[in-house]
Design a protein that fits this description.
Blueprint lengths: L1 E6 L6 H10 L4 E3 H9 L4 H7 L4 E2 L2 E2 L1 H8 L3 H28 L4 E5 L14 E6 L2 H9 L6 H9 L4 H7 L2 E4 L4 H16 L15
Parallel strand pairs: 1-5, 1-6, 2-5, 6-7
Antiparallel strand pairs: 3-4
Helix pairs in contact: 1-9, 2-5
Protein name: Dephospho-CoA kinase
Enzyme class: transferase
GO biological process, one term: coenzyme A biosynthetic process
């Protein structure tokens, strides 16, 4: 089974691209979704112990926790030491199930894949990208987002140009969802000999 890493900086369209891989029939594991589940369960007690007052009614208050760790490297490392091993455990369980189900490939949707060395667990990496102007417009349109917060997030992410340089494939999401679907289809045809659904093959090669 091919393990395909999917990553991209904030606002690049990674979540939508993950949906396109799922639409094509591949199992997809979202690290973000795993964290959401952990924040409402297994990780909550440890996070409350490390960051008192960050858990309300048994669920981590993401806004409160974000305020505690954003821009504080030591606090972020403490949080990652709690959460990352649990996410890896969920990821391993997912891959075991996908192999047992006979999937030809499985997708690991990991926002900070390169930043955390996640590419070592993948056979190929797909980077989702868009021009900086498009990224800015998408991110700053989000509720509660400011230019300062956006900049703080960018500072902990590998630059988009470096991600694209390291990638095996790049999906450009600036030209609309149908074009992105064609790029995903091309990647699947290249890797596993299927176009995924009925979308025609497009340009999914690294640029």
């Amino acid at each position: 089974m091919i393990v395909l890493g999917l990553t991209g900086s904030i606002g690049m369209g990674k979540s939508t691209t993950a949906e396109l891989f799922a639409e094509a029939g591949l199992p997809v594991h979202s690290a973000d979704a795993a964290v959401h589940a952990l924040y409402a369960g297994k990780a909550a007690p440890a996070i409350e112990a490390a960051f008192p007052g960050s858990v309300k009614d048994g669920v981590v208050d993401r806004a409160e926790l974000s305020d505690r760790v954003l821009g504080d490297g030591e606090a972020l490392r403490r949080l990652e030491a709690i959460v990352h091993p649990l996410v890896r455990e969920a990821e391993a369980d997912f891959l075991t199930r996908a192999r047992a189900d006979g999937a030809p490939a499985a997708v690991l949707d990991i926002p900070l894949l390169y930043e955390t060395g996640g590419e070592t667990r993948c056979d190929h990496v797909v980077v989702v990208s868009a021009p900086f102007e498009t990224q800015c417009a998408r991110v700053l349109a989000r509720p509660g987002m400011s230019e300062e917060r956006f900049q703080a997030i960018l500072e902990k992410q590998l630059p988009d140009a470096e991600k694209r340089r390291r990638a095996d494939f790049v999906v450009d999401t600036s030209r609309g969802i149908e074009d992105a679907r064609r790029q995903v289809s091309a990647i699947l045809e290249r890797l596993i000999g299927t176009r995924g659904g009925t979308a025609p093959v497009g340009d999914g090669e690294k640029r």
